[in-house]
Here is the input.
Amino acid sequence: MKKGVGMDEALRLKGVEKTFRGHLSIGSHPVLRGVTLTVPKGVIYGFLGPNGAGKTTTLKVVTGLLFHDAGEVAVLGETIGERSIRSRVGFLPETPYFYDYLSGLELLVFMGRLLGVPSPKLGSRIPVLVRAVGLEGKERLQLRKYSKGMLQRIGLAQALLNDPDLVILDEPMSGLDPIGRREIRDIILSLKEQGKTVFFSSHILADAEMICDQVAILVKGRVVREGPLESLLGSEVQFWDVTLRGAPGMAPPPGSSVLARQGNQLLLRVEKEEVLQDLLDRARSDGASIRGVVPHKISLEDLFLSQIPGEVR
Amino acid sequence: MVADRSDVPRQIAALAANTFKEATRSRVFYILLAFAVCLLVFSSAMGFMAIGSIRRVVLDMGLATVSYFSAMTAIFVGIGLIYREIERKTIYNILSKPVSRGVFLVGRYAGLMAVLLVNLAAMIAALSVVLTFFGGFTPRIFAAAGYIYLELLIITAVALFFSSITSPVVSALCTAAFYLIGHTSSALPELLAPSLESVWAKRLVIALYHILPDLNLLNINNLVVHDIPEAPGFTIRALAYTVLTVGILLVASTMCFKRRDLV
Amino acid sequence: MWRTLAGVLLLALLMTGSVSLHQDLVALNHTYPTEFRSYYIPSSEYLKVASLGQRNFWADLVFIWSIQYFDRYRESVRDTYLFHTYEVITDLDPRFHEAYVFGNLFLSLDGRFDLIYKLSDKGLALNPKNWLLAWDAGTYAFFQQKDYTQALKYFRIAAERNPSDPRLKDLVANAYKYRGDYEDSLRYWRELKADHEKDETEQGRFLVFAADRNIFDLTTKIDLRSLKAAVEAYRSSRGSLPLNLDMLVRQGFLKTLPSDPDGKPYLYNRVTGEVTSQTPFKFRGKFAQW
Here is the structure.
């Protein structure tokens, strides 16, 4: 049991590899080819990647469901393998599969007992959690009557039963409607406020962009970009889209390009700030009115797509 | 909140309770039980065909039905014990908690044994009613039930072992094969060994017989029918043997399951 | 609609064909010879293993089967198969009392007393406390086969295993009597009488009554037998019949001259040499045929 190293890290993976051994005619299939990432304590960390990149596999290695072939995994400062680590971690698997003959309440009691939460604490925590995930009044229903969104929420509730320091969520917003997604986002943010670390995987980039402090992008079993969102995306504006009206024949200054012309409206794209100033001056002098100036920074989607080889942009 | 060793009994109890709920909330369980009880009652009708031995026939057929049916239930439910959890991916919720794999296996096993106990009790209750009707109730059928339960403990442990390493179909075949071997192994010393020439071959066959469990040894139905008490020291030895065998099987299951990837 | 009808008709035709072919296959019957196929019960060694531990269950099944079907065996082989069947049943459950009893019953119908004794010996050896079976076998020997030596063997076993039932001793005494062992018989009845002198039950009083009659007859018979033997001895040594019974005593062929149990002297016919009793036997007619 290694302690001391990385005490301020909630999760650390270094060179983690996993190959699935093949049966008979199907050959072996490497899924993780050296995953390296570090999740500091107290952040919301987004684990992104296309389908099949190995996100779920990585999460299963971290939670002890799979055994990695090489590399190091340290959870909350301790090397993986100690059963006790799992009592400080909360895990929501992808598309939670639960026992449909149990009621929500029975499920939470069961999970709580497995976590070793003492009964009185369980008794006080469960109603709080049920309310927090928005399932108040529905906890006595059988799980087979729950909708997808409700299952996701009860799954989140059971992940938080033991008041974990690290919360790991696999695609927590999949299958939810916009209201549901908003609620999950809010819950994740409130977890951060409580001082917890949230590590979640997703392929809905918009949500990730909204709440993550740091991200890692996994492609074909390797982390290709990692770090705080701000530094990855930069604060630089990439270009402006300018909409002008009233000067259809205006010649675009050098450094800008016309994107569209409709009636007497003109849509131009400008990359440098000086060119923008120049264009705005010309527009005024030509008597055109400025309908819109929209700055574009690199979006997460752009960054994401740029990491995937062969993607058409 | 850190889960430690002292939570293990509570974890096992929680897993067992869940397994119990799973079985008793499934329709299949009740259908099997109802069928067994019907068979029990109808088989006692055979008793009328045996002049002067109605009570004996009812008892023999009753105990045989109870024995066969509870073994069938043990096998059918036991083979899916671990496999179903993996198949349905509900196992992810459990093993991502601080629950060791051995505890998980023991918990599922304990749950099924609780189900089988209820099953057995119901069938013996039905048999008691039928027996009283035919004027032959003896409290020794509870002793017979006890030994049937010991056999069930072993069979279920075997089913659990196979369930943790392979699919239900293969598990069912292997466990059924074990059941057959367990009940026919007496053929080794009685039929095979005498027909062999070499002394070493004979010894080998006898040794094989002792390694394989002879489940017939746990059957005291004849003693119950004729109201003869068991030999002194039998009960304690039968109990010890069962505990030992189940222990071996559970340890083997845990060893096989511990390093398994749960894809 | 016509299509469905045609389809159903076709199906019916095909089924008829397959059913009749099936019947032909059964009739061909080349797998096992018929004679043994229908009524064969495998040896108990294999049945023990095949029963998967539920030996009692299968013993009961074969027993029920045997009661239903025993008369379906052909006459010539019936007793062999019957015996084998009950051997199998009692191998599966050696304590199955009714099996021995019914086995004996069915075997007696064919007069196979030797098989009855074989079956009963097995049952008695495996069940040391069972006296009913001994009694059962004894009754076949005594009343049907009239082999009093066998009867005696079984009644003695019964009496030893169940000393508290005096009727068994009565049977032993009768077996001795019919076998001609008058002295043993007499001893038994004397014991019986002494044991039940004070017995006020109906059974007790009947036993004493029967004992008295037997003691009377046996004493007479024993006396007559020794008298006849003495007469014969006299005749073969002297060449002629003695004049009277006293001569036998005087000349040393008899120690003393007995009188019958009523105290009356025995009658002697000097012409024929016959000795008879003037008091009539208690048992008359066919009951005196011993």
